[in-house]
Design brief:
Layout: E1 10-14, E2 17-24, E3 30-34, H1 50-57, E4 62-66, H2 83-97, E5 102-107, H3 110-120, E6 125-131, H4 145-155, H5 162-165, H6 173-186, H7 189-199, E7 215-220, H8 228-236, E8 242-246, H9 259-270, H10 275-278, E9 281-292, H11 295-302, H12 304-324, E10 328-332, E11 337-341, H13 344-360, E12 365-377, E13 380-382, H14 384-395, E14 400-404, H15 405-410, E15 417-426, E16 429-439
Parallel strand pairs: 3-4, 3-5, 5-6, 6-7, 7-8, 12-14
Antiparallel strand pairs: 1-2, 2-4, 9-11, 9-12, 10-11, 12-13, 14-16, 15-16
Helix pairs in contact: 2-3, 4-7, 11-12, 12-13
Length: 440
Amino acid sequence: MNNLDLPVTRYATNGDINIAYQAMGTGPLDIIMVPGIVSHVEFMHELIGYTAFLRRLSTFARVVTFDKRGQGLSDRISGAPSLEVRMDDVRAVMDDIGSKRAVIVGFSEGSAMSVLFAATYPERVAQLVLIAGFALASEFQSANLEERIAQRVRNWGTGELIKTVIAQQASNPDAISQFGKLERNAASPGGIKAILLLNAQIDVRPVLPNVRVPTLVLHRRTDAQVPVALGRSLAAQIPGAKFIEYSDGDHAFWSGDTEPMIGDIEEFVTGHRDSSSSELERVLATVLFTDIVDSTRSAAAMGDQAWRRSLDSHDQLARQMLERHRGILVKNTGDGILATFDGPGRAVRCALAFSTAAKQMGLPLRAGLHTGEIEIRGQDVGGIAVHAAARVMAQSQASEVLVSRVVTDLVAGAGLKFTERGSHELKGIPGRWDLFAASA
């Protein structure tokens, strides 16, 4: 196990309906993320950038995501619930986690529900943040409403919606396929039709003047799903609302360069912006993840004290190997390590030596390496390269060191040997990856 494991899905009860939610972080304030028309609290983590966005928010808050009733992992229902009913699900989730007051962050379709919640329960809303939001669903305010909805339903599950939600990935077949799977997991064609018919009636403009909590409205000028003009209009009708417009980017808040948006949210809700995160240091590095194979079973067989001694020996061996190969220990992950190297050759040799020595101790390891740009955040690291290395490790077998093709290309001529292990899909990362088993 390592710190890339995802939060556990839990359920809040509102009458006879169960609302699925996840919580991440332990910050001093709560952020409740109100989703758009497509959500699935577990599958959303498959989308590039989504988990990283939430983790960044969780550095200063407890972040809660949920699926509205009728969608994702929440209970399916007949028809579509009104905004008032769905609004009460937010209250149910807050009650379940013991949150008296929270920052409500509404995205896209979720913005209207968030506005209604803030106006109805101002004592439970510290601040309101609306991303890519609207007060009136203008795309459905036309004479051909039935045909527009019918077309959306016909295309449901194909990934067609990615063209306006994450436009920059609209030409990537793997991303389209992945988004189609999200659509199918989020709702059935009949379910999405009921929701679209409800959305066609959304108009919270009369409520906007009654919003009395501090409000921040964020919108990207090139949003292909919700025109920026709707965001401007939304902000203009909320007393004292602050509006920030970004020059480019997709409709999906987790897509592209997210740091300016996250920084603006952090500054709005905490009063300050973490300068270290807004100016991340990015460097090229080789990332190594290791994991003890069948650690849970071994711990149960050995007993707590003996297992603790084995882990201590493992950790000491890891430090020795890293020091010998000029590696940097980023963190222990419970039963493995995350480390970085400034040279891929040393990284591979370290992984091989560590694996051999650990096996002699009766602790078979699996290891994964990938070279790419990483983000340095104090003592921690982040970025796609880190996620890729973890996913490569997940494909390795006991006492095997797997590497990506990038690593093999960079160490050509270094005397290392590699055996093809096939082409793989790595969870949450588009495309297929050629993996290789390393040997000295």
